[in-house]
Amino acid sequence: MLHFQRWKVILVGIIVLLGFVFAAPNLFPSSALQGLPSWFPHKQVNLGLDLQGGAHLLYRMDEKELVDDWLGTIRGDVRESLRSNRIGYIDLNKNTASRAVSVRIRKPEDVERAFTELKKIAVPVGADVFGGFSGNDIDVTRSGDKITLTATEVGLNERISSAIQASIETIRRRVDAFGTTEPSIQREGRDRILVQVPGVSDVQRLKGLIGETGKLEFKLVDPSANAAEVAISKKVPPGTELLYSEDEPPIPYVLKDRVLVSGENLVDSQPGFDGRTGEPVVNFRFDAAGAKRFGRATQDNVGLPFAIVLDNKVISAPVIREPILGGSGQISGNFTVQEANDLSVLLRSGALPAKLSVIEERTVGASLGADSIDSGQKAAIAGMILVVGFMFAAYGLFGVFANIALLVNVALIFAVLSLMGATLTLPGIAGIVLVIGIAVDANVLINERIREEMRSGKSPIAAVDSGYSRALITIIDSNVTTLIAVLVLFWLGSGPIRGFAVTLTIGVLASMFTAVTVTRMLVAAWLRWKRPKELPL
Amino acid sequence: MFRGIKFVPADTKIDFVSQRVVAWFVSAFLTVVPLVLVATIGLNMGIDFQGGTLIEVKTKENPAQLAEIRGKISGLGLGEVQIQEFGAPDEVLIRIASQPTEEEQQTSIAKVKEALGDTVEYRRTEIVGPTISSELIAGGTLAVVVAMIGIMIYVWFRFEWQFAVAAVASLVHDVTATIGLYAVMQLEFNVSSIAAILTIIGYSLNDKVVIFDRIRENLRKYKRMPLVELLDRSINEMLSRAILTHVTTLLAMMPFLFFGGEAIYGFAIAMCFGIIVGAYSSIFVASPMQLILGVQREAFSGSPSSAKGKADKGKAEAEARA
Fold it and tell me: Which of A86, A213, A504, B59 is most enclosed, with most CB atoms within 10 A?
């Protein structure tokens, strides 16, 4: 146990050296690192949101809205299909609860033909790697004169997946515009998106930007209706809808249902200032199709007001003075500079496919994060000093060996954390401290065992030798059981807890390495050098 | 040369296992009473498991005017609101009960911010919706159960089933005792409490395995020694190690109690308590249980040819590797 092959010693030496080299950047503030030569490692441990401040937002997509939209599309398709095939129908309904659209065919002789035509609406989805598919997105069934189109589970999953993907892209564009460093946006589970933005201070604004659906529509104001009266009587004329502005108190508008142009036709939007009044505005540009449609609509309705509607709220309702043919325009609405800026980001990033709601939010202010780092550091250093002092008191020289191993251990933890790009959280700092306890335990086991072997009358070298080999079994057994508990933590935990599990795992592995190699080599070297008659233990 | 202070004499001969009747009572007390406490006074469930909103603020005036803040917020109609000092006189924790929908939870925060305005600095906001809180409860329970099962299998594999049962029984004891601490001190029970409990499980088990290891070794060494004497001998032999290790871990953890800040305080106190309870249960629960479960000595007969014991095989392999 005490004789090492040269290459092993060299290997361990290299690992320890690399540990210190890669842990070193963490000793410097990141500003100081910039000045260091490029061969010097620059990677530092990432600080968790709880230490550097930031926002953790978990969104859930409104599945009901998604289903509702989809059923609306199916209903449209059914109408279109039956009309173009000249099949008479009644009772075309959608039922969100049962995820189905049903229709009854007037003439019995048309039912078969209608069934064949409507089946064409369904498309195969969920193509897997084997080239097969898991089924259609819609199930078409009939009973008597009634044909029912039901959205299938696979179809819904496919819709959710693509809606989540699209939302992630949209959110990324919005958050990027916020100008923070390294936001992380990822899907979680079936219908959730986790957004983590470090260092953000105005969380309210961030949430406003992410959570807004961003559905922009241009609609005509119904000139024949008196909006104030409709708002009181709630009797909305057919083909129109009642919407409000965001003013205080809200102003009602009666708008025609038909959408002139929607946000999908926008190619660009930028914040700017109105040439005459100097107030902040948003300038936008339509694509060719949008420009054409908008041009025609404005041409036909000169002198009438139209409304710019964002997420069912009227932003403004200007009167069309002249046809707008160039495809670009301006939205004004008593914005502040920031509001104009945010609105342009919203429009540029596109609309979310469905509403997202925050189901979990954890925000830490930068000052609390800094306080946590400070107190965590203080506590960890105090703990370290106490442990090192106690080990020396308990074991003298062998305590010094254990303390060197401990130092190597901590360096290895930071080196691995830095290289992995892992995240250090406040519980993670506590984890490092716990690892210090565990690492010390390995050395305590060894030293106690050596003491026992000495008492049974063994020579120093024999005592150290069998001390190490016997203690090793215990160390492995006890550490593996700890690892089991920690792996469960990693598997089931999230955020800071996961950070804790990662630090603990690395620490336990590093402590096994240092206990069985580093201290053993130190003790062996010392024995060869001094050739003591008895051990100072 | 300085040889180190021997904090624990080498030849202690304490009759731990003979005291087992007293120990059974103490252990039963530590296992049952927490359950009663949880049922009666209950745990101070954090928003992780209950849903709700938590806002930590630092006030501009020192100390914070709690009554004034309470006055401003209680009028908002947000249901149950708790306002307490948190760590420092100018730091206040505001807890708002879970609102019926996620949207209302969002508006509740906006309302509080409107009511308090710029008189405070917002240090931390946490909103946990009803969906997440029930998932976190399920996840936390699952984590503890899965860890227990994994540990049981490993110990069974490396030792004998009696050891596995004794280990899990004493871990259940440690877990309930720790939960009892949360109930008595009314510490907030949240996701990091689950982390603390799992870490205590890992640490405490580590300690049990070390003693089991020695019991196994002694079963091989002293074939005719009465079991009570053998268990006592094993515990005494490991006493110095146990005390040194627990003291160092406590020393490492304790500074977090004093300057770890409020966020880590609950975690640190649970860990310190768990270290002590774990040390107790290794000696007074896990070891004496071997007497009840009846360890079969044949399984540890020591001669590799018997090949009955999985443990023997495992040990032989470990030695071969070493």
Answer: A504
CB contacts of B160 in chain A (<8 Å) are none
For residue B303, the model assigns a pLDDT of 46
Q: Which of residues 129-188 of B touch A (CB under 8 A)?
A: 129, 131-132, 139-140, 142-143, 146-147, 150-151, 154-155, 158
Q: Does the predicted model carry a pTM greater than 0.95?
A: no
Residue A393 is nearest to which of B5, B110, B237, comparing CB atoms? B5
The sheet carrying A138-143 orders its strands as: A89-95, A100-105, A146-151, A138-143
Query: Where do the domains of chain B lie?
Result: 17-42+133-315, 52-128
Q: Which of residues 353-372 of A touch B (CB under 8 A)?
A: 357-365, 367-368, 371-372
- Residues in chain A within 8 Å Cβ distance of B195: 427, 489, 493, 497, 500
Predicted confidence (pLDDT) per residue in A116-133, tens digit: 999 888 888 765 555 555
The residue to which tokens 């792996």 are assigned: A487
* A491 CB burial (10 A radius; 0-12, 13-18, 19+): middle
Query: Is A485 close to B201, i.e. CB distance below 8 A?
Result: yes
Q: Quick one: average pLDDT of B264-273?
A: 90
**Interface residue A188 vs chain B (CB under 8 A):** no
Burial A90-100 (b: 16+ CB within 10 A, else e): eeeebeeeebb
* From the candidate CATH numbers 2.60.40.2250, 3.30.1360.200, 3.40.190.10, 3.30.930.10, the one assigned to the domain spanning A217-337: 3.30.1360.200
Q: B199 and chain A: CB distance < 8 Å anywhere?
A: yes
Task: Among 3.90.120, 3.30.1360, 3.10.100, 3.30.700, name the CATH number for the domain at A63-158.
Answer: 3.30.1360
Give the model's pLDDT for residue A207: 87
**Chain B closest CA to A268's CA: distance in Å?**
31
CATH 3.30.565.10 fits B17-42+133-315, yes or no: no
**Sequence ranges of chain A with CATH classification 3.30.1360.200:** 217-337
Q: Is B203 within 8 Å of A488 when comparing Cβ atoms?
A: no
CA distances from B12 to A247, B16, B224, B225, B239 (A): 82, 11, 21, 18, 8
Q: Following DSSP, what letter does each residue of B200-232 receive, concatenated?
A: HHHHHHHHHHHHHHHHHHHHHH-TTS-HHHHHH
Q: Which CATH architecture has domain A6-53+365-530?
A: Up-down Bundle (1.20)
| pLDDT tens, residue by residue, A392-451 | 999 999 999 999 999 999 999 999 999 988 888 877 887 887 788 888 888 999 999 998
Residue B21 touches partner A, C-beta closer than 8 Å: no
Average the pLDDT over A198-216 and give the result.
84
The CATH 1.20.1640.10 domain(s) of chain A lie at: 6-53+365-530
Write the pLDDT tens digit of every residue in A25-76.
Answer: 888 877 777 777 777 788 888 888 888 888 999 999 988 888 988 898 899 8
Distance CA A110, CA A103 (A): 13
Type of residue at B43? L
Q: Answer yes or no: is pLDDT of A196 > 50.
A: yes
* C-alpha B160 chain-centroid distance: 25
Say which CATH class B52-128 falls into: alpha beta
Task: Check residue A131 and give its pLDDT.
Answer: 53
